[in-house]
Give the backbone structure.
Amino acid sequence: MSTRLVDLVQARLDQFFTERSALVTSVAPDVETFLDYSADLLRGGKRFRALFCYWGWQAVGAGRDGFDPLADDNSPVDLPAVVTAAAALEIFHAAALVHDDIMDNSDTRRGAPAAHKRFETLHQAGVWTGAPDEFGRSAALLLGDLLLGWSDEMLDEGMSVLRQPSSAAAARTEFNRMRTEVTLGQYLDILEEKSWRSHPETELLTRAHRVIVFKSAKYSVQAPLAIGARLGGGSSEQVDALRTFGLPLGIAYQLRDDLLGVFGDPEVTGKPAGDDLREGKRTVLVALARTKLPTNARNLLDELLGDADLDRQQIQLLQNAIEESGAIDHVERIIDHNVGLAREALANAPLGAGAREQLLELTDTVTKRKS
């Protein structure tokens, strides 16, 4: 079922870019790269947000257990609206990734050059005037903005074919809230990277947890579930149950991401080893390591963290220090705790049995992944 849904979302994305092609190319041949880069960003990926949106819709009884989403004669009437909304979430996610890579100075995304690096290469190949990196950042910023606008357009298209206007309005409200929260969460992320020394040591872990909640947990899991539930006309009790499930799962999801950002295999993650260390991410993992390390090791961690020129030996040194501190095991326990909370929230929730089963499967998928 999930694989088929992913196929539907990809088809809807392909259709959207085909529809936008004439408008983009009518502006000037020079801007076709925006269309190409957008399509490349939206090709592949895990589609977690789309999946949570769909199963949020199914969970409130809007769909039918066991139906084939690719068989038109057996699909609920509102399925196209749900697929379109799910695709809108994927476009929004692509926009966030473009902007995130600029802020983090990340050279790669999913094993390929990040958008700003692609524009930088374009500048270099053309032997244009000015600095290639400045052009790359500026162009990628505009690409991210364009994708943000397109995500709104696609959501509107989905809402226009939903049978219940009240459900469309409720889903739009959830989407708007998500957009505000994740933008502010991104700010909190870069704020912690630069301002952490000005806050008491006792607050650093709490502040790192706050970043997880607003930058990732709500946006990656909780909000897509709520949007899907609203699309299906879910009751307040059902939406609350999905929120209660989604928040701890989203926290566990991001904690796994933080571990992969430091210890992940580059061949699997598509990012350089220890990328979060070069970017200076003040994650829960780092906050916990700092509380457990002796003073000299903690000072070294603070000195090296965020140095974009860290070499492989220095990365290894930081990895060893974090591992020896016991912070990895601590994070794993927090992940397990949050997964337990998420599972408990589903146990007696007023949700469809088939959807609960699929959500439990997704719980394992998003928290035990290697990339």
About this structure: The domain at 166-371 is CATH 1.10.600.10 (Farnesyl Diphosphate Synthase). The CA atoms of residues 120 and 126 lie 10 Å apart.
